[in-house]
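Sequence and structure are kept together here, with a separate record for every protein. An example record follows, reproduced without changes.
>
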Amino acid sequence: MGVCGSDDIVVHIHPPMLSVGHETLMQYRLNEAVGRPFDSTVNGARMIGSGVFDRHPKLQVLIVHMGGELASVLGRLEFTWHLNYNGVRNPPAGRPYKNKRPPSDYFKTNILVDCMGFNPIGLRAAVEMCGADRVVFGSDYGPVPYGIEEHVRIVEDVLPSPAERQQVFWKTSNRVFRLGLVDTDLIDPAVHQSRRSA
């Protein structure tokens, strides 16, 4: 992790085909629908709780599929971090949190998510959790028979601001992956058209 943090390399986390507990989740394709996002959720929560982002403050991690279910359990992570079972008689087994800041802070500084999740509700939660400037475009197009156009529509429905849409569609990826794409959205389409015809 130290190398990635010092060299501004983004770590990409994608769940495996078979999730934890997949034996009981194969019915109704719950392994895909519930198990794999659960894996991503556990990975992200463990990274936060382990204090890895405090030890490597420049580390950037992209958790796909809208960060699993992190947005829906963020309140619980915050509560248990504040509590950390200090003064609780007979606390549950396990290691206490090692992170120095509230879990929600790391979504503003170290964790990115993509917009792939098939639903505007999840995308709204991901944007609220991270900010539009920490959400990248993702689609799973290819192995999943759900086109890019549908994901574009979800982003457009959730983010009315053209500036925020551009962040998700390409600007954040351009920044974090250092793609070197030129910012051409500053040219008004009418001006661009008149330049072409001149």
The longest strand covers residues 10-13. The radius of gyration is 19 Å. DSSP finds eleven helices and four strands in the chain.
